[in-house]
Each structure stands twice: as C-alpha cells, then as structure tokens.
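Vitamin B12-dependent ribonucleotide reductase structure dump, as promised
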Amino acid sequence: MTETTSGPARARKGGGRAKSAGLRIERIHTTPGTHPYDEVEWDRRDVVMTNWRDGSVNFEQRGVEFPAFWETNAVNIVTSKYFRGAVGTPQRETSLRQLIDRIIKTYRKAGEEHAYFASPADAEIFEHELAYALLHQIFSFNSPVWFNVGTPQPQQVSACFILSVDDSMESILDWYKEEGMIFKGGSGAGLNLSRIRSSKELLSSGGNASGPVSFMRGADASAGTIKSGGATRRAAKMVILDVDHPDIESFIDTKMKEEEKIRALRDAGFDMDLGGDDITSVQYQNANNSVRVNDEFMKAVESGGKFGLRARMTGEVIEEADARHIFRKMAEAAWACADPGIQYDDTINHWHTCPESGRINGSNPCSEYMHLDNTSCNLASLNLMKFLKDDGEGTQSFDVERFTKVTELVITAMDISICFADFPTQKIGENTRAFRQLGIGYANLGALLMATGHAYDSDGGRALAGAITSLMTGTSYRRSAELAAVVGPYDGYARNADAHQRVMRQHAEANTTAKRMDDLDTPVWAAATEAWQDVQRLGEKNGFRNAQASVIAPTGTIGLAMSCDTTGLEPDLALVKFKKLVGGGSMQIVNNTVPQALRRLGYQQEQIEAIVAHISEHGHVIDAPGLKEEHYEVFDCAMGERSISPMGHVRMMAAIQPWVSGALSKTVNLPEGATVEDIENVYLQGWKLGLKALAVYRDNCKVGQPLSAKKKEKEKVTEKAEATIREAVEKVVEYRPVRHRLPKGRPGITTSFTVGGAEGYMTANSYPDDGLGEVFLKMSKQGSTLAGMMDAFSIAVSVGLQYGVPLETYVSKFTNMRFEPAGMTDDPDVRMAQSIVDYIFRRLALDFLPFETRSALGIHSAEERQRHLETGSYEPTDEELDIQGLAQSAPREPQPVLKAVVEAPKPAAEVAAPLEAHTSAELAEMRLGVSADAPLCFSCGTKMQRAGSCYICEGCGSTSGCS
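structure tokens r here:
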C-alpha cells in the first residue's frame, strides 16, 4: 500500500488543512533498475483492417511494434484508434512504447509539478508501475486519455459530461452550442430539461410556451449532424425529464411515435435502417431518453393514487395525473422502442456527497456518471481477470493485495490528470477542478464469475461482485483521503463535509451487512471492511480529494484493447468466441474461462476436454458428457438456450450499486415475447432494490434490428443439415454443380418499369414447375454501354440461377444497392428504389419468392402493407395463400457429379471458423440460432455487441456513441 510521509506543513491555497510532503510510491510489479519495456518480448505486426462486405481497406499501418503476448484484435484496435499522427508520416506513432510513454510521462510531469510525490524516486516508480499496468493490460484509461494526452491538441481526459439548461432562450442556445462542442471532441453529454416551462404554461408575453419536447428537436438535429469526433457514428446523448413535469406524457411518447413513422416509411420503400439515407428524416433518434421518478411517484404507482404535475416557474400543481397511467405509458413506450429508461431521483440524491452545492439532476449518456450540472468525469477500468490467482489443484483466490495497490495507483493517476486537463467549456472546467470527480470501474466481471465457478445469477456470484466493488471503492476513497493530506481536499469539500462523511458511513454500513458466501468472497469482504474503516478515520482527519470515486462504465473500446472477454459488468455473450490470428485469418474457440470454471467445480482433465469439445460443437453445455445439471447455470450467458433472465441482470446491478459512487451502465435485455407488465415489474423492482437508473431493451422492438430468433433457428437447422450431408459426401466425392437448362418452351413474365425517370423492360422466365431460371433486361438503345452491361448482368444472373444459386441469395445481395438512377417508380408494390438493380430484385422477390422468405428480407406487396396497417400482420390468411405458387418457387436441389478423390487437409482456421462469421456476436448468432440485439458497425460492417448501454464493434473497436 502506498502511504504519505510527514513533512513541513504548507498552507493550502485558499485556506484549509495543512499538507504533508508527498506520497511514497511502493513497487507492485516492477524491478528496481529494470524498465518494464525490457522485461517483455516485442515483435512487429502489420495492421490491415477491411470492410468484409466490400473488401475495402478501412485502415492500414504496417510494422507496428507490440509485445508478443498481445492478441491481434487488441493490436488492431489500439493501432487504429489510439496511435496519433497521420499514417505514412514521420509523426505517426509506430510502437506501443511511444503511445504509453506519451501518456505516462505527461502524468509524471504533472504529478511532480503539483507536489504529489515525496521524491523523484517515487515519481519514477509511479511512472514505471503505470507503464507496466498499461503494457500488461491490467487496466486502461478511458479513450480520451489515449486520444489526447501528450499531444498538441487540447488534453481532454473526460468521456462523461453533464450540462444544464434554464428556462431562457439564451440558455437553450448555449445548450446547443456546448453539446455540439462536446460531440465534436468525441464525447457525449446528458442533461435534464425539467427547468424549461411546459407547453401548458404561459410566457411573460401571454402566449403559450413551446415546452422542452419542442426544443429537443433542434438538439437532436444538431447531434445527428455533428459526427462524434469526426467519426462515422452518431453522438452520445442523454435527455431527462422529471416525472412531475406537465409535458411528461408527450416526452414519453416522442420516440414511440417516431418508431411508428419509421415502420411506415420502411414499408413504403424508404431506407430506414440504422445509418440509412432516409433515417435522418425521423426525429429524436440521436438521444437516449429517461424519465426521472421520485419515491412519491413510485409509492403512488403502488397504491394506485394520483400524482401532481407541477408548473416549472411556480412549483404549484397544475394537473393531477394517475400515477399508474404514466407508469404504464413508460412501460408501453419502452416495450415498443426501448425508450424511455428510468432514473430514481431520491435514491440518486440519497448517495450524493455534495448536496449543499446542488442536487444531482442529470447523468451522462449511459447513466453511469451522476453528479452536479456542468461537470465532467474521467474514467478508468481494471481488468478483473488479471487479479484471479490459480493456487493449484483447482483452487483459486482473488489477489486482494495487488488489486488494492493497483487501485491506489490508478486513482492517483486519475486525480493528477485533472491538474493538466482541458475542458470543452469554462463552466465545466471550473466545476470539475472544484469537485474532482473520478470514475474508476472494472471490466471482465462476467468472465471472472464464470472462471471461479459462479453463476452470474446466483448468490455466490453477486457476493463476489459486491465484495470486489466494495473493496475497489473503499480503497479509492481511502487513497482520496490520503491525497487530501498531501495536496488538499477538493474545493467544495468544506461546505459538504457532513454529507460526504454521511455517504461514506452508508457505504461502510452496506459493506458490514452484506452477505458472505464462500472462500473466494470472504477475504475480499474482510479487506473491504478494513478499507472502509480507514476511509472514515482518514476522511474525518484529512477530508477527501475527490467528490466521487467510482462508476461502472461500458468499457467498450478499452475492454477490447485489454483483450477482455466481457465488458463492464456484463455476463459472457456466449461460450464460444471469434479469435483473430496473427498473420491473418481467424478461428472459433471455446472461452478460456470455461476450463477454469470446470477445474474450480472439481472436474478432471479428461472430463474437461470432453465438455469443451461438446461446447465447441454445440455452442452450449446442455447434455455435455459428465457435466452435472446443477452446474449448467455457471455457463449461462447473455445469449443462447440458457440465457440469463431479465431479473438476473437486475439482481446483479443491485448487488453492486451500494458501493458505486455513481451508477451502472447496463441495459436489461428482455425476450421478444416479453409483455408490458414484465417491463413494469423490472422498473418497479429496480426502485425497490435501490438502483439509481435502469434501461431495458426488448428483442426485435426496433426497425433496424436484424432478423428474429425464429428465422435464425430455421436457418440454423437448415445449415446444420446441409453441413452434415456435405461432410459425408466430401469424404468420398468431389462436388461439382450441374447446370439445369430451361426447356425450349417456358413460362415467363414481362414487366415494364420506370426508376427515377429511366424506363426499362424485364422478362423473367421460369421452369415449368421449379421456379425462376432466366432474366432478360432491356435498357437504353442497343449498342449503348448501359444496354451492354445489362445484357452481361442478365446472362451472369441467369447462369447462376441455372447452376442452383437460390434467388433469395441474389435478392439479399442486390436489394438496397444505391446508385443513379434512383427514386420513384411506377410500380405500386415498390414505390421507391435505391437503383435499377434494387428495383429488379425486389420485383423478382415479389413474383417468385414465398411470403416467409421475402418477409424476412423486408419485402412486401402493397396489399400486404395495407393488411399490416389494418390487422398488425403481413401474414396472409389460409384462404389467401397461393399453394401452387409456393410449390413452384421451392428451391431446387443441385445434382452433384461424383468422383473419387483423396480429401486434402484443411487449414485449422478454415476448419474452426464458421461460414460468414466475423465477430463473436455473429458467431453466437449462427451457433445458437438467436439474434443479437445490435446494429452493424458503420466502419467495417460486422455485427456489434452490447457494452453497457452502448454497442461496441469487436472487429474495429468503433462504438455506437460512448467513448
């Protein structure tokens, strides 16, 4: 443990307690006389990142230097995201050493300048320990530190911002400007709009006010225009409204009504996918919305009572509302479109360390940072798997001593960063320096729990998670009190001393009453108890350097940079993962945490190998040889046949919240079949269990989400059957497709069309009883370039069809392809087309594909869209089904030519990697037959996965909003 030394007292600027001479820094990992860089083997890598959909190169830098033990994906992400300087110039960073040095030398210099260290030797130890921890992926700062520290640009270190807005046009316009500047810098912001008077109140001129929902439109448009950090992703943004605001129902309905608009426009042929050209015409899509509720409202919901909606300017009740009605509307909207989330105001402010300086009104976009308005928080996260010790013979322990020392090191560095940091606005800079909010957290909790044989939804798992969280925050506040003795408490401490100490007692009392479960969590609880005793003793003596210490952030990009299996406090996505290989290629592996868990549970090596082989083949543990059923729950994941229940996620959040200064970034996923009542129950239980905030997501509730789990399950069964047949045939034969030509006389359909004013004709000929087999396209004058290309394209498609390429394959590849001419058509079933090719294959799908196939591809006739408006379903009735048409459009089985061959061995990567999987999320979908509730990455086209309340691309590290 680091400690302070006594020395000549120095008066703190502005008065206050005397300060001691500085910190003595103790070595944790490093060796005197040896630099951490000299203790590892380094090698050179080539980083080439492509968009798998079109093969284009997104990023390329060759010859970068990294430790040999770094995984390929972490190398790719750190090189492409964090190395500074233009690629190909001498200024470009080429080694991880340069990147780490740029950061740690800045921290050391600032620490020395502000008298944090007792001696230059302590400063050097601090630098080396920080370098070792970053080099070995033991922890990571948030992305802005990697982006900005040590560069000529402003050294912004914070990822989380809270703004404020008052009931004046000047303040509202300042909100737009400040938010835009934060988005430009690559970060996100949140704020509460409840000070703005409602549309039911009068202006001083006598007219009606616009209301906050009206002003949300302008801010939403701004967020959609300013690409965060210059990247191709939307800005991260949170908008909050108090439940007693008279416009609360309009606020709740905003995104649900827009979601209905999205569906209608999509059915009319517009491109409404996330990132699509036409989605920008829809409002309120660039923010997460949350309703801030209080205990009075929640009690009225329980009792069925009334609740007063209050005027913003006078505070008087202007309308009595039914609390259950409002609560129901919140749940209905969240069921329909995942917004709004919920924040529990009284709980949030009950844990507020600085109430004398103002209430906590808002949060950052992912709801983990909650403090005063116009403040910011810099984050860092510990990799929990780095502290799990294997003591041999299947026994494990959590390295309490090393975890404590690393936490102290990181908190010290985080506080130093505020000394040199730049901020986007003067108000935020002044308040952040005055309160010095920090947000230490962790990643890999889900992996740690599984590796130690704990189910995520279990008393043992929750006890271990709670113990680690309590130790982390207790250690952080103890270090904060030690720092206060050296460089003084935060400026706002004197005014808030009683409240701050009260909150410390609340943390300590929760630690004392927490349930101990087993040999793993008990020693951690004991260390946490000692830490909280020190916190109270030292805090009363010295005060505290920081108004807050911890949050649990999404850890998206930094989690991948640390090669974490799980992000933040999330469980494992699935038991198999997608691993990139050095030198290119990839393979499927069973998570390394599975063998560790099996050893912890007492299984022998032969049994472990058999169970791992079963998981590798099936993607789950059900019916794994030798695995006891009572151990199945240990391997429950976010996806799959044994996915964790919604309340399992809520209970884990409740087990952690009492020892987190801020809150937790996490979304509670619900299955598609969940009801509005299920969401009401989640919101109600979140309040009763003491959470500060909660967001939900019902699978398939948004338009842009991929196909449903049912469709995926059908595809999985088909793919598995085809793979089994193919494997049996390939052992003795070589497969060769055979062309199946059309007869001399064949039925056909000729269609005239116009797309964006361009006219053309399409003739589609089919087999008498076997579906489409030939397409002819006539465009422009004979001999022109366009006519020639259309002829060649027709021949290519026709030959493919006759060799057995399914029509749905062509449809999935060519619909939504964009180029001119494009626009309105004269076809009532396809009113808008992105191009001629887009129109052609939509028309062919309508004419030749069965309803289920094209419905899964989002292609419906005008009649079906009308049916959906009237009945809520595109599905035709039994009387409407065209049985003969369905039979004719059934796929043909190609006939192979059999030829005896000797089967050549396949490369390991080819054997292991499933067809068309590019990330672990896509692999889980294919193996488990479920659909991940995530969009595709804007940069590389792969399926993203959840990281707290955000999404992260495992392929390139891009996020959906949070840094």
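The longest strand covers residues 57-67.
lmk if u need the other ones
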